[in-house]
Amino acid sequence: MSGISLTRRxxxxxxxxxxxxxxxxxxxxxxxxxxxxxxxxxHTICDSxxxxxxxxxxxEAKGNTVIAIRNWKQHPNNSLCSKGISTLQRLYNPNxxxxxxxxxxxxxxxxxxWVRISWDEAIKTIAAKLxxxxxxxxPDRVMFYCxxxxxxxxxxxxxxRYFGSPNYCCESSVACNLAMVHALELSYGGEIAGGFxxxxxxxxxxxxxxxxxxxHGYYRNLLAAKxxxxxxxxxxxxxxxxxxxxxxxxxxxxxxxxxxxWGMIRVLIKEGLINRAFIDxxxxxxxxxxxxAETFTPEYVEKESGVPAELVVKAARMFAEGxxxxxxxxxxxxxxxxxxxxxxxxxxxxxxxxxxxxPGGGSFANWPQDYIxxxxxxxxxxxxxxxxDEPEQKAKRIDREFVPVWNEMQVLCSPNxxxxxxxxxxxxxxxxxxxxxxxxxxxxxxxAAIRAMDFSxxxxxFYRDETHHDMDLVLPAALNFERFAPFGTHGRKVSxxxxxxxxxxxxxxxxxxxxxxxxxxxxxxxxxxxxxxACNSILxxxxxxxxxxxxxxxxLSTLEFFPPQTMGKHEKGILRFDGKPGFRTPSGKIELVSSxxxxxxxxxxxxxxxxxxxxxxxxxxxxxxxRRPYITHSKTRRDQPYLFELESExxxxxxxxxAADRGIKEGDQVWLTSPYCDHKVxxxxxxxxxxxxxxxxxxxxxxxxxxxxxxxxxxxxxPISGYPCCNDVCIQVTKA
Length: 736
Known about the structure:
alpha/beta
């Protein structure tokens, strides 16, 4: 097609021609030109843990059928767990969505009347509807959303930008990991984390059970660090596998993590365990911290949190011995009514003791400035982040009144007030990729919002009635074995895929997003719908290409463009975009008192706010959404039957005392109730010492009468992040 001008019209004509055969591929070449009986080896990345890219999969295929999977030995994460092994069942699940569907009955009807349509009709319908809304109301009336998998984020965000809508959202701007990053950015200007380096003498892990939620190598590294003498402090209300390795296990009551952190800060100050030279040079707000910490005596902390006073003192002293690192979960304490400030309070201990950018302490990833995060392989230029950061675009976002701090700092929009925005006419359509209405509290309100929109469509691997019932179109998305995009980055290494062809008429997410972009915007801006060309637009700047990396498989090459990890980056001018020494905060220093929080009328300190207290009627605290080794929220249930066999119904953990008080025994059916919904949630009880008295450990993602999200209120949002308080709700459990 050299020399031919490709317009949106000719592009759509090409879609119609290319989509005629059921197994046709638009632009991406066939994954493997093998005969039907040839056996070959391919590579991909497991996306089961919902924080891609993580563990490598090497598979054996016969023709276009994957017949075996195994560890990809050359991949940095090369040991598959039960979730990764069972992805083959998901690939060949007979319930997969394989063809585009269009509703034929009115929204709200019991039967949507789904009929199969062609990709040509689907793309033309989407292009026409989105263009109509853009012309009549403005591009910001369309919300673009990525849920699970996270892999299409870069392509969908690029689609939102060139369509002209700053209302790009994802599950991380609803309730996941980004609030933790947000909290750290408020103080440090970026995500700072500690590892198990050879010089780490003490590690503090807050609210994270990496033995279950991270690749196998994490727990092996933790045990190795313990064996060489590293001390471990774990702050977690649960008795997790990681907590059982702790020298000190701090078990605060739900929502009181911030009180424990301030108690430890007070000990550091009172006993002179701070690094005053580091504070004076690199921090601001220290005197305010000293004054505020005075209230948090060990005795007050014990009364408020339940953590013994002597353990608060002992933990502070142990952390001060250093070098010390800290890891804070993004899926636990951020899901509290005061989550962001509680995270910030914990993180300040690194700054106060000077454990920042030193061997064995907390550090920042040393990425090229154009690169955003490790988990999707995309850049600021690919999504045009400058455009999203313009004040004009920030002012159009639907979260500007709801969470002003988030609106200023984050490029991702919070969609948590979607029902209100639809009623106000500020959102009239949604383009959803892996969208799940059950991620929200009181999900029925979001389902009603989808029903009330002018137009909506979703791309997904399976038909999910709870989300898709009132949408106009549902599109079949390819699975991880069938996708080229995106590539993965692992430190200075990059991994690409060698996939099979998608089953049926499924398209990979990047292909769907880029094809829509080519139809509503410009074909060249969206690589004529080709995911590999889209990846190459990034990789070429790093001195490589998808084809080059694919030829080197199964080995992973080292990207010389990526700088090696070094310490003292704040002193060398590596952290700031202007090349000056310091941090990416407005002041250039670690802001113990956040200037951005203060700018928007909040206390700049990470103040502690008492959590909701249990009552006689609702005496138990709920943790909603902790992971199991074989469950990631809603995706590893009936989609992967092997995992469903391990836990075939909603099972809660409760302490022996709480069970005995209610006449509940192991395996009994129980009901969960809260003040915020008028119906019961069904579960089966597991009586275990993993839970302390007063706590219920439940799973998010079950459906029907087992779904826990209706227990969570649509009020008491964290004002700094806009996250719901999924881990900060009082409930009751009764025997069924």
